[in-house]
Amino acid sequence: MVRTSVIGCGNMGSALVTGLWKSGNHTVIACDLDSEALAAVADYSTETTEDISRAAEADVVFVAVKPDIVEAVLDELELSADQTLVSIAAGVPTEFVEAYTDADVVRIMPNLAAETRDMAAAATGDLSPAIRELLDDVGEFAEIQEAQMDIATAVNGSGPAFVFYLIDAMTQAGVAGGLDHEEAETLAAQTFKGAAETILRDDRSAEELIDAVCSPNGTTIEGMEVLWDSDADEAVADAVAAAERRSKELAADFDDA
């Protein structure tokens, strides 16, 4: 069992707590000053605490707080060279975190699917075998360069919200066609889930898979013609670009820190 702790049990922190616990490979200390946040993850934690020094006793310490309080947390957090600090604070450079700790520093951008162990994460830093196994316990990860973290934040960190938007759009189309909401949402969400698994497991490209689904003169090609003639791809690209810009703005706040 790997001793882990998560400092900050908001949406992302609590998702990590839950996913790590569900893997069965970790003891998890959940740390937050908000008693309600701790109560929400109590069933998925070995221990809940408001004491950051307790969280600092773990082998792997996640700092899952908002960027504007990262510095205050790092000031209080005393770790040694044989520990690993994993920062998930959006826009906070690895170099900034390293200046505050003797621990090995890994920076990741996960997403909320860590709760169901389906996380997509971008990771940068010296990823030890133990950290690789830990990330595998809660989903899939891509190892990238620090300079690529802003775009990764937009793609997989913000991406779930974009996907939720598209699932809801398909759900509403189903409801408009006569399905009840629960039926339509199940069909739409499971379709996204299955399509995602196919992309990950199949050697064919997205374009090739589209062709595989589109029978000549069939229903799918009729719908795809509408998408191809629209600006849907540009709208998605614009959403990703906007999220990337915001990540860069957050990072700029730490340039002179």
Write a compact overview of the structure shown.
The protein has 257 residues and is of the alpha/beta class. The chain has twelve helices and eight strands.
Largest sheet: 8 strands, mixed
How far is the N terminus from the C terminus?
Answer: 37 Å
Strand order of the largest sheet: 3-2-1-4-5-6-7-8
**Number of self-contained structural domains:** 2
Mean pLDDT: 95
Under the CATH scheme, which class of the largest domain?
A: Alpha Beta
Please provide the ordered H/E string of secondary-structure elements: EHEHEHEHEHEEHEHHHHHH
- The number of E-state strands comes to 8
CATH architecture annotation name of the largest domain: 3-Layer(aba) Sandwich
Gross morphology? elongated
Give the CATH superfamily of the largest domain. NAD(P)-binding Rossmann-like Domain
- Annotation field: number of helices: 12
Proportion of helical residues = 40-55%
- Uncertain runs with pLDDT below 50, 5 residues or more? none
CATH names the topology of the largest domain as Rossmann fold
Structural class: alpha/beta
Strand coverage percent: 15-25%
